[in-house]
Design goal:
The structure is a single chain. The strands form two sheets. The chain has a twelve-stranded antiparallel β-barrel. A four-stranded antiparallel β-sheet has the order 1-2-3-4, covered by helices on one side. The chain has two domains: 2-83, SH3 type barrels (Roll); 90-309, Autotransporter beta-domain (Lipocalin), CATH 2.40.128.130. It is 10% helix and 58% strand. By secondary structure, it is mostly beta strands. It has helices at 2-18, 69-83, and strands at residues 22-25, 31-39, 43-48, 52-57, 100-110, 118-128, 132-145, 148-163, 169-180, 187-201, 205-219, 225-238, 244-254, 262-273, 280-291, 298-309. The protein is globular, with a radius of gyration of 26 Å. Strand 7 and strand 8 (148-163) form a beta hairpin.
Length: 310
């Protein structure tokens, strides 16, 4: 008989344990009895007995001030402290705090002249929250062959995305700088802007497209040149596993000022994280720029490099 009473009491005991948490009142009138697992600047991640894990935007919570926010923040801070150290920025300077920062260096092959190896090094950084995303990349390549410099170039790009609330649409603006000793121009600056659409975005796959305008200013001796181009971009990121990822970016730039001319930039990169060292990875890939305005129209470079988190 006692066993029967226990069986009836178990659901009640379980319900009383789970019910200990926070009562969230939504602006649409709904009420949720949940346990708060994580808090960010704009949202709460909660666990509901029936609905499972949910992400609730703070803007949709009617009784946010009445919740035990201080307790929640302390609990979240303790969890973060247990799992990872506080990010103090690049080399402890406070610069680029909570960015995904990495330094990569290695060797570069070239298809247009020979199979000689050149040195390459670069820095990249990525930051994303619920409102926007920053993506910075830079690369320097130098090649010396038979007592002669045959390649010497530097490239840097910064892209800023602004997300639209509860929408796959976003807006972007980007700036870039190129210096190349062996191009028909000395150096060039690039500015672009336009809308984008996020087709897929989850932990395993990201697929997005962009469309806009790109202005490019070339410094050429004896006369500089200003061109306006269209922009059509595709971004694909596939997280194959916890250790491997594949990224493909393709940007087409049909010229508006010089009809019939165009550029196409393709970037392919496969990354494999290593277990032996923290934040260390091997990267294989290639970068190709096809430009109808250049004497050497196709510039394909492939590389093997090591990435190190900073």
């Amino acid at each position: 008989m006692n066993k029967i009473y226990i069986y009836f009491l178990l659901p009640a005991i379980f319900f009383s344990i789970v019910s200990k948490g926070e009562v969230i009142q939504l602006r649409n009138g709904d009420t949720l009895n949940v346990v708060v697992k994580k808090q960010t600047k704009d949202a709460l991640t909660v666990e509901h007995t029936s609905l499972g894990e949910l992400t609730v935007e703070k803007a949709n919570i009617n009784n946010l001030q009445a919740l035990n926010i201080q307790t929640i923040e302390n609990r979240v801070d303790e969890q973060i402290a247990e799992k990872q150290p506080v990010d103090t920025g690049l080399f402890g300077t406070g610069l680029l705090e909570y960015w995904d920062r990495s330094l990569h260096f290695g060797f570069n092959g070239e298809s247009r002249s020979s199979d000689d190896i050149s040195f390459r090094a670069g820095f990249s950084g990525l930051y994303e929250d619920t409102e926007d995303r920053w993506d910075f990349k830079s690369i320097y390549i130098y090649k010396h062959h038979k007592h002669e410099t045959t390649d010497n170039q530097f490239k840097a790009d910064l892209i800023k995305d602004w997300f639209v609330n509860n929408s796959p649409w976003f807006y972007f603006a980007s700036a870039g700088f190129d210096w190349d000793k062996f191009k028909d121009w000395d150096y060039r600056g690039r500015l672009s802007a336009g809308p984008g659409y996020q087709w897929v975005k989850n932990e395993q796959l990201e697929l997005a497209t962009r469309i806009g305008l790109n202005g490019i200013y070339k410094v050429i001796d004896p006369k500089n040149d200003l061109d306006l181009e269209g922009l059509i971009g595709l971004h694909l990121l596939w997280n194959i596993s916890d250790k491997q990822s594949l990224k493909i970016d393709n940007f087409s730039y049909p010229s508006i000022t010089d009809r019939g001319e165009y550029r196409n930039v393709t970037i392919f990169e496969w990354t494999h994280k290593l277990d032996s060292f923290k934040d260390l990875a091997i990267k294989l890939g290639f970068h190709n720029e096809f430009d109808t305005t250049q004497t050497d129209k196709n510039d394909l470079k492939y590389h093997v490099s090591i990435g190190l988190g900073l």
